[in-house]
Specification:
Elements (H helix, E strand, L loop, with lengths): L1 H8 L3 E5 L10 H19 L3 E5 L4 H11 L4 E6 H6 L5 H8 L3 E6 L1 E3 L9 E3 L8 H10 L6 E3 L3
Parallel strand pairs: 1-2, 2-3, 3-4, 4-7
Antiparallel strand pairs: 5-6
Helix pairs in contact: 2-3, 3-5, 5-6
Length: about 150
């Protein structure tokens, strides 16, 4: 598993997409998702690693999931554009909800979906809906010291 490699290499965290997380906490698949995330985060914790969830879900859904898992090593790798591309929110609001849980940032830009049958799309920096100056100001207010990785598909 990636946590074993991270441990061998002295890498402090494992980042990955976490698959589908139901928005409705009463959906039986939500509880199954909590159990799966807890298993993965526990495995990482046993090895002294953090597990950073990257998922285009509504920020409140991801926060609830993290709270329900209840492990201090389950944190967030926030992809600024994916919130917009998937129509799940905007980065400033996400930072307000997830704040101190954010340990990684994927910096890219995107536009909203223009159809009910397609996602939005990634675009060049400055051509999309991510307000980078406002994001960086919010990160300063949060005293964020983690990485900001430029990601371009």
């Amino acid at each position: 598993m990636a946590a074993d490699i991270a441990t061998e290499c002295g890498i402090p965290a494992v980042h990955t997409h976490c698959g589908f997380i139901p928005e409705d906490p009463n959906d039986r698949r939500y509880e199954e998702s909590v159990v799966a995330m807890k298993q993965i985060a526990s495995y990482c914790k046993e090895r002294g690693r953090s597990f950073l969830a990257k998922r285009a879900r509504r920020p409140h859904t991801l926060r609830r999931m993290i709270e329900d898992v209840g492990l201090d090593n389950l944190l967030v790798n926030l992809d600024l554009a994916n919130l917009i591309i998937y129509g799940k929110g905007n980065p400033i609001e996400a930072l307000e909800v997830l704040g101190q849980l954010v340990r990684g940032i994927h910096a890219k830009d995107g536009v909203l979906p223009t159809s009910t049958r397609k996602l939005g799309k990634e675009v060049a920096f400055g051509e999309g809906r991510v307000d980078f100056p406002a994001v960086f100001e919010q990160l300063r207010r949060l005293n964020y010291k983690g990485p900001i990785l430029i990601e371009h598909e």
